[in-house]
Design brief:
alpha/beta; 9-stranded mixed β-sheet; 7-stranded mixed β-sheet
């Protein structure tokens, strides 16, 4: 006979305890423990039976070609490494209203190959999905809809119709009768994902799971959810901007550094094949506090505008505001500017913004932030045909960055005349470029060349 016991589980990482804890000892998060009932079997005879499995030599295993299915979006295929792998499990996360359901519905319409597509929704009705499909001009007649949250019914439906693609929207709304906790809890999310994984692997069905995110931007639920799936994708971007970045943070079948660029329009998600030309298209000429940088996202170089504004503070403590860049990195660079370049920023409010709502974490944009702040402080504009690249150290030196030739090719392709790069990168350049390449050892050299020192 089975008996129920109560445990406390951390909603953030899945750590369980026999008593409630204010702080999780595993992930150090506060107030994340919830009470859950666990049914344990009183009989332990089955557990005592030891079974053996066949052991195979690694060299004797035959290598098989990975079979992929094109999604219909070249930007998405770039992130995935060439398309969806048959039988793979993909987790797509993003903030509410960012465009996850829109992108998924367009994938259902454009995905190649024969077979039906099963769209399982636990949040929206069939009428709501139909309204969105009409707005997006979805024409695929093989899209099947199932409004259900019981995983057992979903499992039997998948076995009956045998689709080529399954969409689960969203994982937090699904539940299993075998677990007494509420949908969205740690136990439910873990069990549902495990069942879906067994189904898609056994029948080689490509499956996409949509997951909610927390206020910190992470997938809601235990971190084990990300470990169980094959691919984890995040759809990023500001809600009030039209540009979206699809970023792969885990991929068992390809690189995890690639990104895809989309623009949200009335007809749905539209690919941006040349992000650099789009992101700098509205840049004003000869404006103080503006500079172009060549950032690298995966293997793709992107030219983007960095803007800065300095103004006299009215309080004793100056403000530092960063939008699209790391706040701590900005304050560090401000200290380097004051110490090594002699700019008195202690009485200035400093605001830095990456145009287009894009978030950049690469250190190669350090020199761009330095130049933008100095340009705004001096109220001197930098020539519009100049692009800067470089990481700035604490002593003011400009350190080398990776894939410098690929960045310079992107700068040259878009017609810019001058590129300031680290001196150490200039010494090892193998190719010759038509544009003027300036090597700078430190921030003082770069600011002097631009007339900001």
């Amino acid at each position: 006979m089975a008996k129920a016991s109560t445990i406390f589980v951390c909603n953030s990482c899945g750590y369980d305890s026999q008593k409630w804890l204010g702080k999780c000892p595993s992930c150090n998060q506060w107030n994340t423990f919830v009470e859950e009932k666990v049914i344990k079997s009183a009989s332990t005879k089955e557990l005592s039976i030891k079974k053996s499995a066949e052991v195979t030599s690694l060299n004797s295993i035959e290598k098989k070609e990975i079979s992929r299915v094109k999604s219909g979006f070249s930007e998405l295929d770039r992130v995935l490494g060439g398309g969806f792998v048959n039988g793979s499990l993909t987790l797509l996360g993003g903030e509410p209203g960012i465009g996850k359901s829109t992108l998924i519905l367009q994938i259902c319409d454009k995905i190649q190959g024969d077979g039906k597509v099963l769209y399982v929704s636990g949040e929206e009705s069939g009428e709501q999905i139909k309204l969105r499909a009409d707005r997006l001009n979805i024409s695929n007649k093989e899209i099947m809809f199932l409004g259900e949250t019981d995983i057992n019914i979903i499992e039997s439906t998948i076995e009956n119709i045998k689709p080529k693609l399954v969409i689960i929207d969203s994982i937090q709304t699904m539940y299993s009768d075998e677990i007494t906790s509420a949908p969205g809890s740690v136990s439910q999310v873990r069990e549902i994902t495990s069942k879906i994984m067994r189904i898609c692997k056994a029948q080689a069905i490509t499956t996409i799971i949509i997951g909610h995110v927390t206020k910190d931007g992470n997938i809601a639920g235990p971190r084990v959810l990300e470990h169980m799936v094959d691919t984890v994708l995040y759809l990023e971007g500001e809600r009030y901007f039209s540009y979206r970045v699809l970023r792969g943070v885990k991929n068992r079948f390809g690189s995890t550094n690639e990104i895809g660029m989309f623009e949200m329009r009335g007809e749905g998600m539209c690919e941006i094949n040349n992000p650099s030309s789009v992101l700098i298209s509205e840049r004003e000429e000869a404006t103080a506090g503006s500079i172009l940088v060549a950032s690298l996202e995966g293997t793709r170089p992107i030219l983007i505008e960095v803007q800065a504004l300095t103004s006299q503070t009215v309080f004793g403590l100056p403000r530092r505001n960063a939008n699209g860049v790391d706040y701590n990195r900005l304050t560090l660079l401000m200290a380097v500017l004051e110490k090594k370049a002699g700019l008195n920023l202690s009485s200035q409010d400093v605001y830095v913004n990456i145009v287009g709502g894009i978030k950049l974490n690469e250190p190669a944009i350090d020199l761009g932030m330095i130049v933008a702040v100095a340009s705004s402080f001096k109220n001197i504009s930098v020539k519009e045909d100049v692009v800067v690249i470089g990481e700035v150290g604490l002593t003011g030196e400009i350190r080398s960055v990776n894939m410098i030739e690929k960045r310079i090719k992107e700068v040259e392709k878009l017609g810019f005349k001058t590129c300031i790069i680290p001196e150490s990168n200039k010494k090892v350049l193998k190719e010759k470029f038509k544009l003027d390449i300036i090597g700078a050892k430190n921030i003082v050299d770069a600011l002097k060349y631009l007339g900001l020192k």
